[in-house]
Amino acid sequence: MGRKLKYAAATIVAVAAAIYLNNTSLLATHAGGKPVLLAHRGMAQRFDERDLKNDTCTAARMLPPTHDYLENTIRSMRASFDRGADIVELDVHPTTDGEFAVFHDWTVDCRTDGQGVTREQPMARLKMLDIGYGYTADGGKTFPFRGKGIGLMPSLDEVLKTFPGRRLLINVKSRDPAEGEKLATILNRLAAERRKLIMVYGGDEPIETIRRLTPETRTISRAALKSCLIRYIGYGWTGIVPDACRNAIVLVPINYAPWLWGWPDRFLNRMAAANSAVFVLGPYQGGEFSTGIDDADLFRRLPESYSGGIWTNEIETIARLAGR
């Protein structure tokens, strides 16, 4: 072997060793403690998730209920915290009377006894609806929650007042930057310490507005998350954290996690240093975003002694598996 070839080989070995040492979790500090549990929509009714489209009425394909909690309600959120959730995710829509309604769907037609676009109605009218009206697990033969959800749609203000010391993740459902301005105004009215407990994700335009107007609030949008993960996979081996991953909510599909440099501990430490919170989701397989860590099989795919965040639709199950 010639001198130049030996030098090139030695250089390659040295670079590979440096990359390994800079990214192996074997040499990283382990944060310890139990994982951070995020309850998606609180305690909620599950539904058949196959072949979902944006306009699918999920209440009409509910699975046989095992409890009587309805998503995005005060009762549901309280039950989630009681069962071990550290954070509850909730969905919001602006209303015509200046509030934010806590409700998932773009229209009220599917779940409630009302009609029309959610954001085109006043909160007072939304308060009159029965949010359990449309749930059925047998094709419309029975409606077990009909009549039991009247007045249960809360406003964001109610949620903030009910859970003043709790961590929340707010989902902005539109791509309207004006909605970001309205939510930023509400967040900026809160005390700084309270504001630190709230994160926001959703459409690119409102999230960019919130990121500009309330820069200390951790946020993520689909475009920002894609940029964060792709760039980190590309050059995260250097230890450099992309700007899109800073002061952010980093959602990691469990099947993508092994591709992240330094996974798990080195990666978690880098994100923590960038003031970002990491949550592992269920597998991403294209199309709509992935589900949560919702059963024992997926939970077992997490690294041993994992101490980062877990996104789940089954807080009771995952809290038990996590030792809560």
What would your notes on this structure say?
Residues 51-322 form the GP-PDE domain. This is Glycerophosphodiester phosphodiesterase. Keywords: Signal. It holds the Pfam family GDPD. There is one protein chain. By secondary structure, the chain is α/β, with parallel strands linked by helices. It has a single domain (34-321), classed as Phosphatidylinositol (PI) phosphodiesterase (TIM Barrel, Alpha-Beta Barrel), CATH 3.20.20. It is built from eleven helices and nine strands. α9 (265-273) links the parallel β7 and β8. α5 (177-189) runs parallel beside α7. The termini are far apart. The mean pLDDT is 92.
Secondary structure: number of strands: 9
Number of DSSP helices? Answer: 11
CATH fold assignment:
TIM Barrel
- Oligomeric state: single chain
Per CATH, the class reads Alpha Beta
Number of domains: 1
Helix content: 25-40%
The structure class reads alpha/beta
CATH superfamily: Phosphatidylinositol (PI) phosphodiesterase
Global shape: globular
**Approximate strand percentage:** 5-15%
Question: Gap between N and C termini, in Å?
Answer: 60 Å
CATH architectural type: Alpha-Beta Barrel
What Rg is obtained from the alpha carbons, in whole angstroms?
22 Å
What is the residue-mean pLDDT, rounded to a whole number? 92
Which stretches are poorly predicted, pLDDT < 50 over at least 5 residues?
Answer: none
* Main sheet summary: 9 strands, mixed
